[in-house]
Amino acid sequence: MQIYEKKIMIILYSFASKDFWVIAKVNQKLSIKIINFMTGFLEQVAIYLHRFHSEELQRFCIVFPNIRAGLFFRKYLAQLLEKPVWAPAFRSLNSLIEEIAGLTQADNLSLIFHLFQAFRQHRPTSESFDDFYFWGEMLLNDFDDVDKHLVNARDLFRNVSDLKEIDQLFDYLTEDQKKAIRIFWQDFNDVKTGRAPSLQKEFANIWSLLYPIYETFKQILKTKSLGYEGMIQREAVRILREGNAKYTPYEKYVFIGFNALTPCESFFFKSLQKKYRAIFFWDYDDYYVSNTWHEAGRFMRENLRQFPHPPGWDFETNHLVNSSKHIEIISVPSETGQTRMAGQLLQNLPGLPDPAGLKTVVVLPDEYLLLPMLSSIPVSAGDINITMGYPFTCTAAYSLFNGLVSLQQHIREYADGLRFYHHDVCTILQHPYIHGLIPCEADVIIKNIIGRNRIYVRLSELSGNELLQKIFRKCTQAREFLEYLLEITALLPHSSEEGVVGWGLSLQSIHNILTTNEIEMDVHIFCRLLRRIFASLKIPFSGEPLKGLQLMGMLETRALDFDHVIILSMNEGIFPKGNPKQSFIPYNLRKGFGLTTSENHDAVSAYHFYRLIQRAEDVRLIYNSATTDRNTGEMSRYLSQLIYEPVFNVQQRNITFQVKIDRNIPIVKERTDEVRRILGMYTEKIGEEEEKGEKRRLSPSALNSYLDCRLKFYFRYVDGLKEKEEVMDEIDYSVFGKLLHKTMELIYRPYINKEITSGMLTLFLKDGKSIKNALYRAFAEDFFHTDHVTDSDITGRNIIIREVLLKYIMRILEIDRDAAPFTILSLEEPLDVSIPIRNVDGSVTTHVNMHGYIDRLEAPSPPSGGGRGGLRIIDYKTGNAQRNFSGIADLFDRTKNGNHAALQTLVYAYMTRIAFPPPFGGGGWGEGLRISSNLYIAKELFKENFDPRISISRQSPIDNYFEVAAEFETELNHLLTEMFLSDTPFTQTENTKKCTNCPYADICHRG
HSE on the CB side for 546, CA within 13 Å? Predict the structure, then answer.
């Protein structure tokens, strides 16, 4: 700094060789004139205070609307100092008022609890604290508003039945105010014989209690030296009026950058102003202050009238309509697409990287876009400073909280101890915080749960390290559950996320409140309460506030100026916010008594918006043009104002996304050498490598897969893509079938190779206990994957499934009784054969290794006196199977729906023919022996004259496989030739109905 003494003293300040100010002393009058229009508001205030009060700043108290503005101001002031000096005090307005009132502001949870106490004194109710919480928040906001506006609460909550009383009762109000009150009570009293008298009566009853509740609530708080913001402000006003205020030892109070003042705050300002102890600096633009119709200047016009600037302040206030300002409105048809657009804009901004943190800001009215925005910021932007809270409900810590709540809600107690629902256990063990601490233990437990299909996991299976012991236990009371959460939080890696620290601090605060106020409630209610509390919790980010690109919420931008401003979510309903806070006080009464209304909120939002862009050189305003559940796609009213006001030069740009997914693009897998090598594993070409595990076997269901869709076969049997294993809470069709198969196997296994007679089955049917034991063993082995189960293990819909299975099993035994005698040769035994693939001349080219499990293979006992022998194949079907088909060729026609069950059982017959060559029963297959294919289809079991044989066209049951063997084996040979010896590519089916339940439908975009 250089000083030249002449008649006119001129001082030049330069920052970054750009901004200049001239301070002149002429005729003993001080004036400040800004040379460069981009001089910031806080910078100019710092210059003024340094120039005219530098020797006394240590006796000043400087008050800002937010902490961030104070940090920037200190930076500007420090740049002006040539030597170390005592800094002025920096205080918040709330702390000053608290000091006068002698009350401390309590946290919201404590306030609502004390309000609940007051509420119950005047309205005894069985309503829980959790149920009251919503109403408590509403009442607390109303009481806060009443006190901040110095409203006579007795008059406000008076029930006026005679409209003539209004003029007498409220003679201190203006005529417009009394008119608004009169409108409300007139409409309200007219309801008595109108739409909803019961609601009107209920409202009147509660309304009459609000003043007693209000008074009791404040008395409770005052005895504890606590208060809410409005109560503290009102108490301070009372003390100031009585002249008993004890001011802190500051010579002057400097208020910088405020806008909407409550009547209490305004009274405080006036009390200091009268004592010449206040200096006011207001940040505004002539455009919205001079135009009385403009909502952004609604409060500022009154501020300037009541609390003028200090002498000599001549700050330039005509920046908003400067012709060199660049304003662009950009519509993006996507919520997160806005952040990508902002990232592209940042890529091209000249002010980045910004080591001073003074040039560029990205403002997020919707805090949920913070993480997408962080992902979109280019590396070239350099350092980033986040000055906004992130919703706790979007953090990993909150997802863990939800998992722990769900775990507690689903705990079951059995005779052998606690059991935990599998989904809750897996969710918690897979959570990054938990899995990161115990990866090996977590993986072993999860594998065991899936492998054994544990629906409810025993506590003994979850014991282990300290963390597992802390997590898997039961809590019954709120305080116990809170301590449970605190103990788990203490074991988490606090450095991994800000959310863990914020969660821990919030839990500790809630614990202190519960302990201090001796609040007791059960876990279920307490969890609902915690969710309500966490819904409003914001997680702050730590960083260097005066360095790099600034990411802010709209409130954090107050009093700050930036060259480049990017604002996202400029949508109506987001900025300005729609749906203002709910209130118990109707609109007309609010208006009549001068309380905050939606117009006040709109005026505040408008001021924040216009103030932020008024000194910026480059402004980009982005909104989401897509209609969603959270967004109407409508641009903010402020954008419309900019567009239609002729004083602004606004450019508009519409971004569209050309997203087109052509679901008709075919997916084709050619037969490469690698594909042929894998297919060769199913044949005998490389059979010598069987010991190396390179030999594969094809199942009859694989043939059906190929006929349904060649690509489906490729995914499963060539690529080896398997479906994800999951625990099944309820039995689906496949498990239902497995349980039926397993039970029948367990019933008949003791009788393999023994003749089963009708009398034996009659006795067995009478012994229901043996059948039930077999079914429970099936549940244990094939569903729960354990040693045994009891009635308590089978719960919910599975109880119904159990009873249905019992009926089916009993019916099968009845059918078998009618077909006896017979001898069971095998049950669920593996059947491995090699089926030849023949040339046209009948010579064998190769063999395909086939593998399958025949549910039941039996030999009917020949009638007395001799007769034909043979084999009977029985296949149980619980799904939508059919015994009838139109012809052998149609089974292999992929243009038709096919008949999987019939094809499969005929393949089993062919495999049986190979596996059991002649002589069988005294001769070859051609000498009168037969193979019969039978389907026990569940939905047909109870039909009269049930016939399990497959049949052609419903008229011709196939009594012997050899009746169709020649045609069937020819068709099968054609199919196997195409599958293993041709160059036919693997393509998608043209019948998209077959894609409905295909596990690979998503890969093909047909899901």
Answer: 9
Q: How many whole angstroms separate alpha carbon 560 and alpha carbon 380?
A: 24
Q: Report residue 391: phi and psi, to 5°.
A: -55, 125
Percent above pLDDT 70 for the chain = 86
| Omega prior to 212 cis, within 30 of 0 | no
- Backbone dihedral angles phi then psi of residue 650, each to the nearest 5 degrees: -110, 130
Asked if pLDDT for residue 866 goes beyond 50, the answer is no
Per-chain mean pLDDT for the chain: 84
In the chain the first and final C-alpha atoms are separated, in Å, by 72
* Per-residue pLDDT tens over the stretch 537-567: 888 776 677 788 999 999 999 999 999 999 9
Cα–Cα distance between 727 and 264 in angstroms, integer? 61
Q: Quick check: 915 pLDDT over 90?
A: no
Q: Residue 297, exposed/middle/buried by CB under 10 A (0-12, 13-18, 19+)? A: buried
Q: Residue 905 — φ and ψ, nearest 5°? A: -70, -30
Reduced to 3 states (helix: H, G, I; strand: E, B; else coil), residue 581 is coil
Which range, of 171-180, 846-855, 975-984, averages the lowest pLDDT?
171-180
Of 337-351, 432-446, 512-526, the least confident: 512-526
**Which one of 298-312, 337-351, 443-457 scores highest in mean pLDDT?**
298-312
3-state secondary structure of 736: helix
Average pLDDT, integer, range 960-985: 92
pLDDT, tens only, 385-442: 888 888 888 888 899 999 999 999 889 888 778 989 889 999 999 999 999 899 999 9
Q: What Rg, from alpha-carbon coordinates, does the chain have?
A: 41
Neighbouring C-beta atoms of residue 602, cutoff 10 Å? 17
* pLDDT tens by residue, 595-606: 888 889 999 999
Residue 696 tokens, joined: 């594969």
DSSP for 409-432 reads: HT-EEETTEEEEEHHHHHHHHHSH
d(CA 268, CA 275): 11
Rounded distance between C-alpha atoms, residue 713 and residue 986, angstroms: 8
Residue 191: DSSP 8-state: G
In this structure, the number of other CB atoms found within 10 A of the CB of residue 905 comes to: 27
596: left (phi over 0), alpha (psi -120 to 50) or beta: beta
Q: Which residue has the tokens 């690698």?
A: 674
Dist CA 729 CA 453 (whole Å): 9
Q: Are 363 and 557 in contact (CB under 8 A)?
A: yes
- DSSP state letters, 774-841: HHHHHIIIIIS-SS---GGGS-THHHHHHHHHHHHHHHHHHHHHHH-SEEEEEEEEEEEEEEEEE-TT
- Of 36-40, 500-504, 914-918, 922-926, least confident by mean pLDDT is 922-926
What does each C-alpha distance from 24 to 52, 57, 314, 368, 393 come to in angstroms?
A: 12, 21, 11, 49, 55
d(CA 381, CA 550): 10
Cross-strand bridge partners of residue 421 = 456
Q: Indicate the DSSP class of residue 357.
A: S
E strands present in 35-129: 60-64, 89-92, 104-105
User: Which tokens sit at 98?
Assistant: 């608290």
Structure token digits, residue 195: 């739409």
Angle ∠(752,753,757) on CA atoms, nearest 5:
85
This prediction's pTM: 0.70
Number of Cα atoms under 13 Å in the Cβ half of residue 837: 19
pLDDT given at position 807: 92
Residue (of 397, 395, 392, 393) closest to 488 by Cα position:
397
Distance CA 441, CA 471 (A): 14
At 744, which helix (H) or strand (E)? helix 733-748
Residue 95: count other Cβ atoms within 10 Å of its Cβ: 11
Identify whether the C-beta of residue 926 lies closer than 8 Å to the C-beta of residue 963. no
Cβ distance 746 to 777 under 8 Å? yes
